[in-house]
Specification:
alpha/beta; 6-stranded parallel beta sheet; 10 helices; binds 2'-O-acetyl adenosine-5-diphosphoribose
Length: 253
């Protein structure tokens, strides 16, 4: 919960966002690891992100997987365990609560967990894939597998080939179907408010989508306790944790 002083400090900006959201028909959300942080799923960068003194940004690559598939799978298996035991937090729930008969909420998430869906959000595009799906390296077929822990690491397909998590690794292309959904959304929707929450916006496409929404008239809002590369370009910065800020917004809507 924010302190009274913090609450007062964000009040005018918060009021602007609440007013815009009240009238909004289309809300775009760009969510990142910070949104799941309050569900105890560690972020990639910053505090708590490292695992066994290894940098996640170096594990989430195809070359790391080629070098040591078991090690990379141990890390994903660990994260699958955390996610399976996690519950949606107030940020996920507040975003689901933003949906209303006259207000559509479209979430583009970089998170490979399913906490937005478990909170009740209905339109979620997983631009970096899903940790619950595995892809066969031989034929590219994808399977859902929610077993935690996986019975053997690295997992293999019935055909004998290695399976990889169906996630986008650093340097890989985004899934074409998810990009098409995002493109359709931009073509079909007049976005009133774009909320960029809990992401460093390291990847250029996140910044591009945020700025595209702003250029077409949306109020661009960032919710994050820290500054990011996007901060100089946003209309409103709400500095703090997503759960407390989104909870406050929902209370005032
Ligand atoms: P990062 O881990 O890079 O950044 C997390 C962001 O969340 C930071 O800006 C934090 O300040 C913010 N944050 C932390 N706690 C928060 C809270 N309670 N409320 C709001 N914000 C909070 O995560 P992303 O920018 O999402 O991609 O980048 C993650 C991507 O990097 C992953 O999808 C993965 C990785 O490379 C690929 O593998 C392609």
């Amino acid at each position: 919960m924010p302190s009274e002083a913090q609450r007062r400090a964000v009040a005018p900006e918060l009021a602007t966002v609440v007013q815009k959201l009240r009238d909004a028909k289309n809300v775009l959300v760009l969510s990142g690891a910070g949104v799941s942080a309050e569900s105890n799923v560690p972020t990639f960068r910053g505090e708590g992100g490292w695992w066994r003194s290894l940098n996640p940004a170096e594990l989430a690559t195809y070359s790391a997987f080629q070098r040591d598939p078991r090690l990379v799978w141990e890390w994903y298996d660990y994260r699958r365990g955390l996610i399976a035991n996690a519950s949606p937090n107030p940020a996920h729930r507040a975003l689901a609560g933003l949906e209303a008969p006259a207000r559509e909420v479209f979430i583009i998430t970089q998170n490979v967990d399913d906490l937005h869906e478990r909170a009740g959000s209905r339109r979620v595009v997983h631009i970096h894939g899903s940790i619950w799906r595995l892809t066969c390296l031989a034929d590219g077929k994808t399977y859902e597998d929610r077993r935690v822990p996986l019975p053997g690491l690295p997992p293999t397909c019935a055909c004998g080939a290695l399976l990889r998590p169906d996630v986008v690794w650093i340097g890989e292309s985004l899934p074409a179907a998810s990009c098409a959904q995002v493109d359709d959304y931009f073509h079909e929707s007049w976005i009133d408010v774009a909320l960029v929450i809990g992401t460093e916006a390291t990847f250029s496409y996140i910044g591009d989508w945020a700025l595209r929404a702003k250029r077409s008239g949306a109020l661009l809002v960032e919710i994050n306790p820290n500054p990011t590369v996007l901060t100089p370009y946003v209309d409103v910065k709400l500095q703090g944790k997503a759960g407390a800020i989104l909870g406050e917004i929902n209370k005032r809507l």
